[in-house]
Amino acid sequence: MKVVSNIAELRALLGKWVGNSSSIGFVPTMGALHTGHLSLISRSIKENDKTCVSIFVNPKQFSPDEDFDIYPRDLDQDILTLDGAQVDLLYVPRLEEMYKPGSLTVITVPVIGDILEGVYRKNFFSGVATVVAKLLIQVGPHRLYLGEKDYQQLCVIRQMVDDLDISTDILACTTVREKDGLAISSRNVRLSDQQREVAPLLHQTLLEAAEAFDNTGDELVTVENSTRKLVERGFDKVDYFSICDGLTLGAIGPKTENIRILAAAWLGNNRLIDNIALSTILTRTAGGNNN
């Protein structure tokens, strides 16, 4: 596996691949790699001639009161992991390589980036959109692999790629979970033993909400009951619990086919997000019971 840290080295190697008509898959990460990342990488390796992974903890997607300074980092172990996974290229840009002195350009994706996570993390999606756009320009992959765990992020990046006519296909990959249903995340290592016992109940509550909504079609009652359940089950605070259109993340309507249920809740200082698809096509009035 080649490891490069600047754009010149990156493009020199990528140029050889392009010259050989090799297909390139790309998996952007912030490191602290886990089985979720490895599932994306494995799919990329299967579907492309070459696979590039990036590791960059992006400061622009963290607010001043968030966990940038303590975000898990273990580059040496990540390199060993990626080498063992037979990744072809690891790109580890330095901060000054990614954001040159005097850089001013920021990409925002309004509407879809302003709701849900956008309400609680004001700079998050502009930071994500900017860094992903830069990485796509630098790497120029044929395919980009993203996990569905960060579902709104996936939707924001899809919108950005479509709006900017970036010629990269986006492949969404199923959330990887622990045996008890907890979505795997680099931040899970910060959960206490007690919090770790409670954490899987976020996914369980999503599943119960999907069943309740499937049975009743009553969006408002399902959201209210689910929010209350999370607090009763030990979560300290619920930022949102939303049943929405799986493409736009906007309000659902009669006969909406692609429905997603998303939630964010706190355990102490740890914020967990999760989501599931509700694929059943219901005939209903959004927010009301049609039975």
The H/E string reads: EHEHEHEHHHEHEHHHEEE
Assigned CATH class of the largest domain: Alpha Beta
Question: What is the domain total for the residues?
Answer: 2
Uncertain segments? 280-291
Describe this structure in words.
This protein has 291 residues and is α/β, with parallel strands linked by helices. The chain folds into two domains: 2-173, 3-Layer(aba) Sandwich (Rossmann fold); 186-278, Pantoate-beta-alanine ligase, C-terminal domain (Pantoate--beta-alanine Ligase, Chain: A,domain 2, 2-Layer Sandwich), CATH 3.30.1300.10. It contains ten helices and nine strands. It has helices spanning 7-19, 35-47, 75-84, 95-98, 117-120, 124-139, 151-163, 193-198, 201-216, 219-232; strands spanning 2-4, 24-29, 50-55, 89-91, 143-147, 169-173, 237-245, 259-267, 270-278. It has a six-stranded parallel beta sheet with strand order 1-4-3-2-5-6, with helices on both faces. The protein has a three-stranded antiparallel beta sheet with strand order 7-8-9, with helices on one face. Strand 5 (143-147), helix 7 and strand 6 (169-173) form a beta-alpha-beta unit. Helix 6 crosses helix 7. The radius of gyration is 20 Å and the shape is globular.
Task: Describe the secondary structure blueprint for this structure.
Layout: E1 2-4, H1 7-19, E2 24-29, H2 35-47, E3 50-55, H3 75-84, E4 89-91, H4 95-98, H5 117-120, H6 124-139, E5 143-147, H7 151-163, E6 169-173, H8 193-198, H9 201-216, H10 219-232, E7 237-245, E8 259-267, E9 270-278
Parallel strand pairs: 1-4, 2-3, 2-5, 3-4, 5-6
Antiparallel strand pairs: 7-8, 8-9
